[in-house]
Amino acid sequence: MALNSSAQPHFVLIPFMCQGHLIPMIDKAWLLADRGVIVTIITTPKNVACFSSSINGAVESGLAIRVEQLRFPAAEVGLPEGCETLDNLPSMELMSSFFAALRLMQRPVEKMFEELKPRPNCIIYDRHFTWIVETASKYRIPRIWFDGKNYFYQLCCHNVIKFKAQECFSRGETFTVPGLSDRIEFTAAQLPGNLNSGSSSAMKEQMEKTMEAEGGADGAKKQNVWCIGLVSPCDRNNFYKARRGNEALLTDENQCLKLLESWPPSSVIYVCFGSLNRLTPTQLMELDLALEASKRPFIWVIRGGYKKEEMEKWLKEDGFEERIRGRGLLIRGWAPQVLILSHPSIGGFLTQCGWNSALEGICACVPMITWPLFSEQFMNEKLLVQILQVGVGVGVEVAVPMGEEEFGATVKKEEIMKVVECLMEEGEDRRKRENKLAEMASRTVEAGGSSYINITVLIEYVIRQATDGY
Ligand code: UDP
């Protein structure tokens, strides 16, 4: 696509429909638009509803961000209408239908490409849209694969695969990841999807396809890596902090603030297992009992459709909510997580170790209890607990793939209480370390910081490809 060197480059962003992927992509849209790029985000209506007011705010402030909506082909693959996000799937057995729907989006996206003005100069896409390989080559523009995970995870996976590190060990035996300066140990049962024999075949098949497609991408593998971020918006105002993520389901932020205001600094525990949040009712009960027995104030996000009726029945019949009134708050919708974490009353964050949550915890200087569930979360846990020393592990030993929660082990009340006490009593050193990390992170996005420079280099790369012919 020919581009005059003085013209504004046009980037198309195609996020995966799952909050953990969507949120950092929307943050990237801000960062790029802030540097003079025209950004078009292509996604489906239910996903647009998750971020529309924050994007409207960006547009009102003069940033060139546009949103183009496409219908999600749910009916064509047998998904219920309106089921447009991974966290919304009624059953994990429908995961392969969800990926089939993503494949059906190729034609409509390409049709949209024909009509976009100015013509796009680059696509930044989530790895799950494997067909972007064809689209980018058809329109002769760079495709940049966006990965919201961290380098520690990338390096661990790379070395495990390269040295076939886990092959001589049974699923429960620990092995050391070769080639790292720290002694990092896992069992095969803790490894992410494609490396874990316990993952579902739909997930493995999808992972293989995505890895194949990553091969020739301009970002990551082919020739360049542009590290952009940190994208956690701790410096934005309360309105945007609260609206990060699924604002369509957002719980009234004043309810959280009211509880937080009524407790002293560093006293409240915030519990959230991310956007996919699938604890079994048995696990929920153990956690309930532990939080109640800890006698500490807490905010706990129990949202999610998984076994909802069973959970609600238990919460109601047991009278848990009554007993914790004034001290504990249960959030059933979407929590304003960044707003909560940045409140001075928060003293600890029990997290599933999704990378967005981990970064948000570090930037808010909140020590963490790590409770990984699946995917790269066990690797993030090692980074948080062993290397950065900002967290305490609850001691989960085996990853539980989505859809197989009932087969996972339950962490008992006593173990949970032990780590809660340890974190809340000995949080100061962890907080100090986080302070330093948060400062370093915020410098990366300032003018002259590494992220700032990487955005410049990326934009120049895209302009060069557009002017020289890709
Ligand atoms: N999040 C939120 N409110 C919720 C649940 C999650 O704001 O009730 C946000 C959280 O701040 C983070 C993202 O959703 O930005 C979750 O991403 P993460 O990488 O932690 O985990 P995933 O959801 O992908 O497992």
Automatic annotation (TrEMBL):
Is the keyword Transferase assigned to this protein? yes
- The broad enzyme category this protein falls into is transferase
- UniProtKB keywords: Glycosyltransferase, Transferase
One matching Pfam family: UDPGT
- Entry-linked InterPro entries: UDP_glucos_trans, UDP_glycos_trans_CS
The UniProt record lists the keyword Glycosyltransferase: yes
E.C. number(s) listed in UniProt:
2.4.1.-
Q: Belongs to which family?
A: Belongs to the UDP-glycosyltransferase family.
Q: What is this protein called?
A: Glycosyltransferase
Organism per entry = Hibiscus sabdariffa (roselle)
Tell me the lineage of the source organism: Eukaryota, Viridiplantae, Streptophyta, Embryophyta, Tracheophyta
